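Can anyone check this?
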Amino acid sequence: MNKKVNDWIDAHMDDLICDIKDLCSIASVNDKPEGDMPFGEKPCRALNRAMALAEKYGFETKNYDNYVATADFDSSLPHTLDVLGHTDVVPAGEGWTVTDPFNVIEKDGKLFGRGTSDDKGPLLCALYAMRAIKETGTPLSKGVRLIMGSDEETGSSDIKHYYATEEEAPYTFSPDAEFPIINIEKGQFRGILSKDYQKETELPRLLSLDAGVAFNAVPQKARLKFEGLNDDEIRKAADEIEAECGVSIEIEKDGEVVITGQSAHASTPETGKNAGLAAVLLINKLPLHDSTVKRLLLSLSLLFPYGVTDGSGLGIAMCDEESHDLTCTLDLFHVDETHMEFTFDSRTPLMANEENCGNKAKESVENAGFDWSTPGMIPPHAVAGDSYFVKTLLSAYEEVTGLKGECLAIGGGTYVHDLKNGVAFGAILPGVDTHMHGADEFIDIDNLNAAAKVYANAIEKLCG
């Protein structure tokens, strides 16, 4: 490690904190295009504020049509390393208790505010790593570029725009995840089950079921309407489902039944309680008239058993040593008197392919009586764990933190998913939940310090 660089970072933590507070004060949530601002005024303002900081600290900058801005350590050096972060954020949301989302405060050794950990704080750690190397006169023989995007949270069209004219560096890391390193991101496989049928009026019957707000999130709420059942009949079955599934069920004054579970990201569905699947179990427990709808929902519960998230009901459960288990969750539910439709989201390991995953799911769904469609399979992303690049980053991490460096595989996708030699590298230390995307998002100041030192060490190792 370079003691001069680390001492410089220690001496400039107040500056880093001040810059984070300033950048995070901009509510850079994706908005409608406005003139030459493709994601709205505030994302454009945050992007240009970050670029102005880079200019202030002596780096060569370039703006790519307000999609992306870059800062080069020295553009005359061979283009070797890209560091890819973003200045846009998710909406503030509700439930903040420590501070207003865009008024960053320091409390208990932490910075609280939207964007502190995702991804304005980590991006500025990378900028300060470059600044520390520059201002201590540490020589580099290869070039490092900080790439600052402004549309990571809503589709990453910014990066598509950038790479339409620029080539990838031999090495790219993104400070937009967690340490030690994420070198494998699973693939994604979505399927849609649907069925049209004739309206049946025999009582008692289900009138409607709706659950889910996004294909990639376990549904927290489900709403059902019945005809021909009394509240006592529903309550008896509801008590059994509450005990079995750990959800809560309310019968409202208008007779609508509301099931509340627990949401979770589709990459970790085992952490949620699927209100939609609990609703299907409730329907199957009630004394409804034998109908096409009831028979199809019974089949659905076999394809997607409550609490089972490995895809075994579809016949696609699989696991490999590097990327681990396939996950699968049914996240969008709609049933009415003549049509039903459901969407599942699966995160697939390296071994998954059309034959053992896509074709198998199609066969299972159609055998259960549903129509099948899919947008196809998104392939996984992997960089070899024994590559020079990954081993060098892990070495930099271990030297600074004293923690064991190891490769991780995740079900979610990051900014580098489509880059040939890209990995996610920090900035959050292991075992810390920073409430990213939630209320009271924060980052530990000690974490900021460590991340900046890790990034400086990694840049020196790769470009020194």
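Reply from J.R.: I decoded it. Residues 284 and 295 are 9 Å apart (CA to CA).
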